[in-house]
Amino acid sequence: MLGSCKDAGVPPTLPPVISDIAPDSAAVGDTVTIIGKNFGSARGSSTVRIGSVSFSSFISWSSTQISARVPAGALSSSVVVTVDGASSNAFAYTIKGTVAGLVSFATDVQPILNANCATSGCHAPPSPASGFDQTTWAGVRAGGQYYFTNAAKPGDSTNSGYRIVLRDLPVDPRPVRMPLGSQPLPNGQIVTILTWVQQGALDN
Question: Model-level pTM?
Answer without folding.
Answer: 0.60
